[in-house]
Design brief:
heterodimer, A: 113 residues, mainly beta, 6-stranded mixed beta sheet, 5-stranded antiparallel beta sheet, globular, B: 114 residues, 7-stranded mixed beta sheet, 4-stranded antiparallel beta sheet, 0% helix
């Protein structure tokens, strides 16, 4: 039972264009959402997060949008750069005192020069 | 600031053998996590420590997996005996408290069970 789903295993985008990565969740108790980026042979690194009391959070080229009614969030990268090529994981937290993270299966983003 | 250290980086063993992984978290981080990441999937939490106490080990296969965090710093994760389906990357992460938005991950240990 996957509570966090990333239905696109891969995405290719031209350099300078927008990258949009999508994530869906099923657990209505989730109240905090995060995106992590992972390069090969490295651990995931935190990228950006959003609380359920917001619908948008922006940090430089990265913006996360949250649609609670649809249980959907997306990560926008504008403009995309070749260094952004990595696996992006969506993660969610909430409903428990330990605040654990539940991860999606990841989307491989490739930014073409 | 030094990051989360893990060793070994790679390990190949045969099924039914035992293996141990080591993690050294960021200095001062009270919370330590072990994740299992199977190829094509996201990381799955195995166990969470707060200092040297276990917060949650509900997804740890306790018949073969064990973990400890002595003195609230370093941690070891052991598998005994290993099965083919244990082939995965084992990630260690730490955070100041249970601050989920600031989990810092180590590079992981890639385990192959033959």
């Amino acid at each position: 039972d996957q509570q966090v789903k990333q239905n696109s295993p891969s995405l290719s985008v031209q350099e300078g264009r927008i990258s949009i990565l999508n994530c869906d969740y099923t657990n209505s108790m989730f109240d905090y959402f995060l995106w992590y980026k992972k390069y090969p042979a490295e651990g995931p690194t935190f990228l950006i997060s959003i609380s359920s009391i917001k619908d948008k959070n922006e940090d430089g080229r990265f913006t996360v949008f949250l649609n609670k009614s649809a249980k959907h969030l997306s990560l926008h990268i504008v403009p995309s750069q070749p260094g952004d090529s990595a696996v992006y994981f969506c993660a969610a937290s909430g409903g428990g005192s330990a605040r654990q993270l539940t991860f999606g299966s990841g989307t491989q983003l490739t930014v073409l020069p | 600031e030094a990051g989360v250290a893990q060793s070994p980086r790679y390990k190949i063993i045969e099924k039914r053998q035992s293996v141990a992984f080591w993690c050294n978290p960021i200095s001062g981080h009270a919370t330590l996590y072990w994740y299992q990441q199977i190829l094509g999937q996201g990381p799955k939490l195995l166990i969470q420590f707060q200092n040297n106490g276990v917060v949650d080990d509900s997804q740890l296969p306790k018949d073969r997996f064990s973990a400890e965090r002595l003195k609230g710093v370093d941690s070891t994760l052991k598998i005994q005996p290993a099965k083919l389906e244990d082939s995965a990357v084992y990630l260690c992460a730490s955070s100041l408290r249970d601050s989920y938005n600031e989990q810092f991950f180590g590079p992981g240990t890639r385990l192959t069970v033959l």
